[in-house]
Each structure stands twice: as C-alpha cells, then as structure tokens.
C-alpha cells in the first residue's frame, strides 16, 4: 500500500492542489480501471454467489491460497469487491464466498454499520482499486441488532464503547424492537440502510455508482444454512 497510486497522488500533490488532484485522479482512473478489468458488478456478484453455492454444498475450492498467489498479490492487489460485514466470527466473507487472498477488501464491525472512519477505509479501496461491487452483508440473529433492540425495550444502555454500536443502530433497528420478528426485521432493514448510507454519505462512492463503474448491494447471511441472499 505504501507504493499505492493514492499515496503517489497524495505525495506528488502540492499544497491546496492536493485534494483536487486526488479527486480528478480518482475519477480518471475509475473509468480506466473499470474498463481495463472487464469485470462488471453483475459478473462479480455472480462469482461471489457461485462461491457461496460451493461453500454451502461442501464443494469449496479454497482458491487463491497458494504460495504463488501470495507472491502475486504481494506485488499488488486487485480485489473484486468491497465487503462490509458484521464482525461475528461466523460471518467471514472470504470463507462463505469461497474466495482467497487478495480477492475481497473486507471491512468488519459489529452490526455492519457505516461510520466516518469505516467509510474512509472503504473509500480508500474504492479510489485505489475501483472494484465493481460493494456489498453490505448482515446476518441472521445478529447480536448487535438484538442488543440494540434490548436497550430500546428496557430503556437501558450497554457497557463501555458497546453503547456506540447501540447508538449507531438504534435509529434503524429500534422501530422493530417490539415486533415478534424484531431481530430479523432489524437485520434486513439495517443491511439495506447501511448500503444506502454508503452512497448518501460518500461522494466518492456516489460518483462511481452514477458513472456505472460500481454497484452497491445489501445481503443477508443465514447462519443455519450458510446461504447468502440478496436484499437489494
Ligand atoms: Zn452480527
């Protein structure tokens, strides 16, 4: 990453021109990289869903884990997708999509919630690699959603910094707190809302999506079956 294009643009820029040169460089390279790779959002999504099918049927190929692959991606990475998923130990994107080293740029946090620091991490990948697909991946029985709804019902708070997760999720999953299917409805609403937040809060993502170079989707991982289902 030290030799990255973004860093070169940043360090080569001067004074007030730096921000402008990053923005222009990003837009220019976006079109070039998207055309160069030949990968479309649809192709990448089909690739991931095929990998998930292998995973759930016990036919995972465990691709891109050879020493040769490690050496190849050490020289430069070209991830196919940016994934925002929950930190839950059962929701590991590389495994459940049967991908390998250098395939996915994964951001994980409890409740798969977008905040400014996380969005910065995702924007870095968007500018640097222009992967055609961004996926927010929520999951069945998410503990972060359940804990948030528990706080809403009790009027209590969570200990320590966990309250920051609760605060972030409350506006989205709180309204379902007393629903008989509270957690599931909250999980689906949250994945969709976080996907919408990416383009709403980030001009970098908005420009790439509007230019047709990138697509943002939301999905749900089923803990029981291992299956990923698209939500939108
Ligand atoms: Zn979770």
UniProtKB/TrEMBL annotation:
Keywords: Lyase, Zinc. InterPro entries: Carbonic_anhydrase, Carbonic_anhydrase_CS, Carbonic_anhydrase_sf, TAT_signal. SUPFAM superfamilies: beta-carbonic anhydrase, cab. CDD domains: beta_CA_cladeC. Pfam families: Pro_CA (PF00484). It catalyses: hydrogencarbonate + H(+) = CO2 + H2O. Catalyzes the reversible hydration of carbon dioxide to form bicarbonate. Belongs to the beta-class carbonic anhydrase family. This is carbonic anhydrase.
